[in-house]
Specification:
Layout: H1 5-14, E1 27-36, E2 48-49, E3 51-64, E4 69-74, E5 80-84, H2 98-111, E6 119-125, H3 135-147, H4 157-172, H5 179-186, E7 191-196, E8 202-206, E9 212-218, H6 226-245, H7 259-264, H8 271-295, H9 299-315, H10 322-332, E10 337-343, E11 350-356, H11 360-375, E12 380-384, E13 391-392
Helix pairs in contact: 2-3, 2-4, 3-4, 3-5, 4-5, 6-8, 8-9, 10-11
Bound molecules: alpha-D-galactopyranose (GLA).
Length: 395
């Protein structure tokens, strides 16, 4: 944990907009990033995902203001931005300001009828930005906990996650699924969460953390065209559903499609759409098989499923990158690494590994030795621990 509550509180109190009497009204909140163990690009297809919230987090310390204005300063860069709570409207397409995520949450919560408050605040984070560990969702959830007049917010974790997803879909303009906001809102210490994105039922899945660790490797490569490519994949899935539903009106999403049905309908889809659908349909099966493997303590099977997931994202869904492939290959060949795959949307970002505790040093060494010559970049390696979802930080 790089963020210290005292440092954040001090920074807030120092901010010149804070009159002394507000210092004792400081609200401090945290919201974690996430790593997805398996189930990629399945959430917006009403499928299954298995993420864990992780101890890389975004924090906001804030004090109420007596106007209807939100103003936040980023502790890392000193950058300051804000907005008026009333009369918010989505920004023009292509606006990529971090404050849009905060304003989008205010906009979305207001539409739910949630009472909001103006604040002056300071944001800090130890989550690498734009690296596929859900820095956006963490900022959204931390904003929700900051902006609601009441804390805890009047919406439960799932509805808060949905409000944050709507902010990103309809205000920021990226058509993400629910996984990231869900994990940041509802994470559990020591566990991953299996979410059924159709029924929204979920349950904790214990991880064998006595003997194994989650190791995240950041490619540190720029994420090219991520949001437009992401939206394009979504459209391809929708096209696949529309074609399959022509003769089978009961199909409403790829969740309704089995591998057998898809095979029998090969002629009805163009080759690229078929590959996209095949990834999603098989990935859903892999998530459930992965959960069973963990339950049975069959780590070898779990690792194979992670490898299959990565190959499918690379070859069928085409969202991996040379850097992600390199890190997966390097780590998978290290003795003691059970499984390795890209995590999150792809096009750059991070990989996730399930590794025996004593393999972590070997992972670091292998990555330092082999990755720079294959990519021209230095990777960052983090050991991450599952943590609880967004909430207040007690003083
Ligand atoms: C991003 C999105 C999620 C999910 C993943 C891919 O992280 O925010 O909703 O679609 O990509 O699995």
């Amino acid at each position: 944990m790089l963020v210290h509550p005292h440092r954040l509180r001090r920074a807030l109190v120092k901010t010149e907009t804070l009159a002394g009497h507000q210092a004792d009204e400081v609200r401090m909140v945290r919201a974690p990033g996430r790593v997805n163990l398996i189930g990629e690009h399945t959430d917006y297809n009403e499928g299954f995902v298995l993420p864990a919230a992780i101890g890389l987090e975004t924090w906001i310390a804030s004090a109420p203001s007596n106007d209807r204005r939100v103003e936040l300063t980023r502790l890392d860069s000193g950058e300051r931005d804000g907005f008026q709570l009333d009369g918010l409207a989505p920004p023009p397409e292509g606006s990529e300001r971090w404050i849009d995520y905060v304003a989008g949450v205010a906009w979305s919560l207001a539409r739910e009828g949630v009472r909001l408050r103006g604040v002056r605040g300071v944001i800090a984070s130890d989550l690498p930005i734009s690296s596929g560990l859900s820095s956006s969702a963490a900022l959204e959830l931390a904003s929700a906990w900051t902006l609601c007049a009441e804390a805890p917010p009047p919406l439960d974790g799932m509805r808060l996650a949905q409000a944050c997803q709507r902010a990103e879909n309809e205000y920021v303009g990226v058509k993400v699924g629910l996984m990231d906001q869900f994990a940041s809102a509802l994470g559990r210490p020591s566990a991953a969460l299996l979410l059924d994105c159709r029924s929204l039922e979920y349950r904790a899945v214990e991880l064998p953390l006595d003997d194994y660790l989650l190791v995240v490797c950041d490619t540190r490569s720029p994420r090219r065209l991520e949001s437009s490519q992401y939206n394009a994949r979504r459209e391809q899935c929708e096209r696949g559903v529309a074609a399959l539903a022509r003769h089978r009106p009961e199909i409403r999403s790829l969740r309704d499609v089995s591998v057998g049905l898809l095979e029998s309908a090969r002629e009805e889809l163009d080759e690229e759409t078929f590959r996209r659908c095949e990834h999603v349909v098989r990935e859903n099966d892999r998530v459930l098989a992965f959960e069973r493997a963990l339950e049975d303590g069959d780590l070898a099977a779990a690792g194979r499923l992670m490898a299959e997931s990565h190959a499918s994202l690379r070859d069928l869904y085409e969202v991996s990158s040379a850097e992600l492939d390199a890190l997966v290959e390097i780590c998978a060949s290290v003795d003691g690494v059970v499984g390795a795959r890209m995590t999150g949307a792809g096009f750059g970002g991070c990989t996730v590994n399930l590794a025996a505790r004593d393999a972590v040093d070997r992972v670091r060494e292998a990555v330092a030795r082999e990755y720079p010559s294959r990519s021209g970049l230095d990777a960052a390696v983090y050991v991450v621990e599952p943590v609880g979802g967004a909430g207040l930080v007690e003083p």
